[in-house]
């Protein structure tokens, strides 16, 4: 999976340039495989980016500004959502990538999985105990029914004897 970062190589906005540098620098620091796609020099890239940003994610004027981030064809987000993911230590989830072994995110996911496994084991043990209780109740009911049948049989035999 390749992360696609749509950038404008010749932007007059220093804010856009800083955001682009922040995204690219962070991806490089994480050693994430990504491709830079220039929308300033390539009309196809610009059109593809504009068409593939979801309607609800486009700004009021309808034209999304760079940087825009995709995982192959899937939209990840813009700079603001990237920044939020970075602050939450959830960049890999934001990008739709598995976290590398040993990362904080991987450790958190492992702990979460262990907790889920433990909870599943506890639920299974509880279910087995409930089944054992149900079996014990059924055996008691069967014993009660058998005892009643024996009593009825004795009464019938006594009545016949009289």
Q: Which characteristics define this entry?
A:
single chain, 162 residues, alpha+beta, 4-stranded mixed β-sheet, 5 helices, rod-shaped
Largest sheet: 4 strands, mixed
Strand content: 5-15%
Gross geometry = rod-shaped
Distance between the termini: 92 Å
Order of helices and strands: EHEHEEHHH
User: What strand line-up does the widest sheet have?
Assistant: 2-1-3-4
Low-confidence stretches: none
How many strands?
4
Helix content: 55-70%
What is the arithmetic mean of pLDDT? 87
Rg, nearest Å: 33 Å
- What's the helix count? 5
Structural class: alpha+beta
Please characterize this protein's 3D structure.
The chain has helices at 14-30, 43-52, 79-87, 91-95, 104-161, and strands at 3-7, 34-38, 68-71, 74-78. The chain has 162 residues and is α+β, with helices and mostly antiparallel strands. It has a 4-stranded mixed beta sheet with strand order 2-1-3-4, with helices on both faces. The longest helix has 58 residues, at 104-161. The chain is rod-shaped. The model has no long low-confidence stretch (mean pLDDT 87).
